[in-house]
Every structure is written in structure tokens, then in C-alpha cells.
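ugh ok fine here u go
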Amino acid sequence: MRRIETDTFEEVMRLTFGLISILAWLLLPLPAASGANIFTNEWTLDLRSYSDSAPAVGPDGTIYLGTWTGKLWAINPDGSRKWVFLAGNEIKSAPAVALDGTVYFGSRDGKFYAVQANGKKRWEFPTGGWVDSSPALAHDGTVYFGSWDKNLYALSADGKKKWQFSTPGEIVSSPAIGADGTIYFGSHDRKFYALAPDGHKKWEFATGGPILSSPALNNDQCLYFTSVDGCLYALNLDGSLRWRLRTGSITESSPVIGTDGTIYVGVLAHLWAITADGKKQWGRSGDEESPMEPSPVVLANGSICCVSRYGMLCYGSPEGVVQPMYYLYGYGYGSPAVGPTGAIYVPDRGPPAGCGFTALRAGASLARTPWPKFRGNARNTGNIQDKS
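structure:
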């Protein structure tokens, strides 16, 4: 393993994980792993900042993620720094990469950004609140995202506002785009919405709590999302309820879809597998002490990769065996990214620097399912038509 150092330390770390989390990990039995489940640390880059942003992987293999210090990092596949773009505040929004290399993301400075492939700002768009929602990219160049100012925005590729749709609640849910261009998202107002590409409402569906998670689209069949009311919902694309499963979880883990149509989602400290007709198949934990809040990732070999808030990276099998595999010394809310050659990219708060970003060689690429990870694909476009 090699460690790549960066510049000076820019801010005092805002969150310290107690010794209890490390001791809890040390006491966990680590079962023997074999085959693709053996993790090799390829490199670690010292970011000097924590990250809650789900990384994106561009067409050329460049990895992008945001940090608490307001930096958007572009990292070469070998782990070296490509460039860094500075926004005005923390970046929780997951970056999305267009085919031309433009990177789109929001920041808690209340702005939404478009950055060119060389790291230069193309444009910025101001909103009235934090932008934690991750963008969805339509094939006509339109970009959709939500804001804490209670609006969902549609911007053209040059940064001009096409329309905005207001809801009674804040929007942190990241929108998803269906095959016909419909935009799906949830709101703090306890409702889930479907909008036409011109911004008019097609339908809404009421739940019993705010919707923090982002939808997973199952082609032209249905979609899945969770609500703080403690339920996982499956809706038909006309807005009618297909089924509802009580999980009891209030985390923001977003569901993903496995190779056989199984739905996977983090439920408290467990990874759940749910059948396509809404029945719980199994629930297992690789870390009993910490919630599985980041969304899981489905790999091409059928394995499910998930990370706990304490930083335990686990592998699950379709049969329900969940093994702790690698300790990341604490984690955030961002779902892992998977490179084309089978590298898993994750924030790693391990020593000595405490704020790193790590590539783990896991031996399996991203699964080709309708929605194998948060934002649907490696580029984080949130568009069902994009498979890479």
C-alpha cells in the first residue's frame, strides 16, 4: 500500500469516533474470506477532511467526491490528485458526471455547481438553502436536483433555470429519471412525487413520514423508496401502491436492486433482503453496534457490499451470509463507488492522517441490474437509461 499526502491541514476535524467503536470492531470475529472477497488496499489518498458524499466514477476512470471542507476532489485511478475545486461550504451531494466530463453537484453554501473536466467552474446556480440532494442528468442536458428551500429545480446544461417545483417540505431526496423522462423524488412533506419533464405534477403519493431516501427504479415495472415512517414502499409507475413493508427503520439508506430482482436496503444495524413481491427474505448484520445508513452496492458476482456507520465494510451473499471484511475507522453517509476493474472506493478515516480515501481491490465490478447502487450507475446520473 502507498499513501499519497496532500497539502496542509485546513480545519479541525468536526467529529471524533470514540474508542468504544474501535473496541467493538476489535471484538468482532472476522470469518475467513475467499476468492473475490479478499480485500487488498491498493492506495489511500489523504484528503485532510471527512466525506459524506457518495463518489462517482467518470468514463475515463477519474473518481470524484465532495468533502466537509467544501472541496470537490478529482482523483486519478492510481490514487493521485488530479485537481480540487473549492465550493463555499460542505458537500454532501453526490457528484454526477456527464459524458462530456462535466461534474454537477450541490453544496451547503446554497449553490449548485457545474465544473468542467479540467476542474474549472463552468457555472453556479444559487438556491435558498442547502443543496444536499444529488443531481439527476437527463439525456437532453437538463439537470434536476432538490434544495432545502423546498424546491426541485430543473436547469439547462448552460445553468439557466427551466422551471422549479415547490413542495411544503425540504427536499434532500435525490431525484431519479425514468425511461420516459419522468422525474421521481420524495420530500420532507411526507409525499413522493412524479413530475413530467416540463415540470407539471403527474401524481403524488402520501406516506406517514418525511422521505429522505432516494428512489430505485426497476425499469418500467415499479420503483422503491423508504420513508421515516419506518416503511419500504413499492409503487407502480402510475403512482398506485404495489406493496408496503414495515421495517421500523428511520435511516436514509436508499434501496438497490440485486441480480435476481431482490431489493437490498440498510435497516438499523442490518442489511435486509426483500423479495420482488415485498416479503422479507432475511436480515443480517456484520456490525451489531452501528446502523447501515449508506446504501448498499450490488456486485457482478452477486455479492452485496455495505458499510456501517462505525466503518465496518461488509460483504453479503444472496443467501444471507454477511461477513465483516475491512475496517475503515469510521464512516459517513456516502455509498461506496465501484470502478470498472473491481476497485471499491470508500472514505477511510484511519490513521495516521484520519481523513483518507481508499481504493480496495475486491475483484468484482458493478452488477448490471436496473439499480445496483445509490444513483443507479457508476457516474451517479440517477437515470435509468444509463448503465455506466
